Amino acid sequence: MQKSLPRPVAAVLATVLAGSLAACSFEPPLRMPRAPSDKAPYTAGAQVKRTVTPGGPAGHAQEMAYGKELHEEWWKLFHAKALDELIAAGLKNSPTIAQAQAQLREAQAAARVDSSIFYPQVTGNLQANRSKASAAAFGRSGGFRYSLITGSVGVSYYPDIFGVNRLVYRHGEALVKYQQWELEAARLTLTGNIVTTAISEAAAEGQIRATRAIVAQEKKLLELTENQYRAGAIDYVSVVNQRSQLATEMATLPPLEQQLAVYRHALAILVGTFPANARRQPFTLATLQLPKRLPVSLPSQLLKQRPDIRAARAQMQAANAAIGEARAQFYPTVQLSAAFGATATHPGLFFSPVSSIWSLVGALSQPIFEGGKLEAQKSEAHAAYDAVYAAYRSTVLNAFDQVANALRAVEHDAQTLAAQREALRAAARALQLAQASYRAGASDYLTLLTSEVQYDHARIAEIKAESQRYQDTAALLVALGGGWWNKTAPRTPTASAPQNSRSGVDPLPAKQVNP
């Protein structure tokens, strides 16, 4: 005769079995692409270490400090108070930031909804009913009236035997992380757009000033040419050519002023104000300082510091949890419920022991045949993960492309500015000699006109090259992630699972501050 196990032993075994089932997870290990090596450079060819020294304003060399920390407020490396104030206003008032913050709160609330399944659900019910029943069943005519009062408290609970609840929560938790990184990416994009637009405004302002100075010079030269024509020293064709040159230079002013207006309007929109309400001092290149030392993160750190990469990784974690959910659908679902209350025909009898009612229900549901739906759902989850996996790889490659291009741009910008400044010096010297020779009657007007055109082009090209150096420096700092990991503000709380839950999201660095 087979003996049954003693109750204490059976209870222990049941506990162990339940714990084992709860510990198992249908979520597969997170599949990640191979991380790049820190020994490999970002760019093809030799690694960029130091630029040339162009000389003049914003003409010092820039050094790449690999492995160094980037300042949290990276735009302060330009040491422009007006720029700092504009970015502060943008971060406070931008509707793009407000939208990202609202989406984060929405995701956090959804995660709290998911976490509620870990706890019993308690529902109270109170019902009063007045009815008339027929007396025909008792061989009597008419009927009788009665009242029925029923009150109960019900409790339902879904034990997480196969970890389905935990997978649902991890999916929502990953989406919270995704929205946190999307918020950080929105901040980085906003600050980057403000900086580059401010530099573009400063460049347009500089070109306008240079063009107006050129126009003033052309007017003086036209006056000189007309005087020489009156004196009979030159023919009238030279006067017509100089008038044409003056008109050509004046025609370049309206497009430049239009560009300046567009940049100023764009800055107003970026900080959350209407263009007509913008009140501030204009930016000039002279108000900016070019950073001499540029902190450049190592390749492995870039994966942790770029908000878009972290957002793509969070999407992978959410998709990975969805695979576990699809797998768990093949296994039973258990529901426990209980109810306790009272029902009586008179309020005075409601709290009497004879009026008490109660029920205990345990339900188990096991899919048997659903026409291939569960297999299809599992295949769908795997395909969704493959899609976000490919998107993650694309995001990483795009990030490294941006950093590599920015590094080369910083290097080549210095070389371009050095060449442009040399060209400007040569053009200025040639124009001085041509003007002196023209006044002395030793050279014709065509020689002078050629020197003018060369000088004008060289002057505008120098301003463009100088502003491009600022633009690409800002682009490099943005491509590296913007320095958010050096924040010291307290972390934003998110929905939390019970203490024994295992989070599917990697912990953030110690200095990380979630938006």
Automatic annotation (TrEMBL):
<comment type="similarity">
    <text>Belongs to the outer membrane factor (OMF) (TC 1.B.17) family.</text>
</comment>
<keyword id="KW-0175">Coiled coil</keyword>
<keyword id="KW-0449">Lipoprotein</keyword>
<feature type="coiled-coil region">
    <location>
        <begin position="407"/>
        <end position="434"/>
    </location>
</feature>
<feature type="region of interest" description="Disordered">
    <location>
        <begin position="489"/>
        <end position="515"/>
    </location>
</feature>
<keyword id="KW-0472">Membrane</keyword>
<feature type="signal peptide">
    <location>
        <begin position="1"/>
        <end position="25"/>
    </location>
</feature>
<keyword id="KW-0812">Transmembrane</keyword>
<dbReference type="GO" id="GO:0015562">
    <property type="term" value="F:efflux transmembrane transporter activity"/>
</dbReference>
<feature type="compositionally biased region" description="Polar residues">
    <location>
        <begin position="489"/>
        <end position="503"/>
    </location>
</feature>
<dbReference type="InterPro" id="IPR010131">
    <property type="entry name" value="MdtP/NodT-like"/>
</dbReference>
<protein>
    <submittedName>
        <fullName>Efflux transporter outer membrane subunit</fullName>
    </submittedName>
</protein>
<keyword id="KW-0732">Signal</keyword>
<dbReference type="InterPro" id="IPR003423">
    <property type="entry name" value="OMP_efflux"/>
</dbReference>
<keyword id="KW-1134">Transmembrane beta strand</keyword>
<dbReference type="Pfam" id="PF02321">
    <property type="entry name" value="OEP"/>
</dbReference>
<keyword id="KW-0564">Palmitate</keyword>
<dbReference type="GO" id="GO:0005886">
    <property type="term" value="C:plasma membrane"/>
</dbReference>
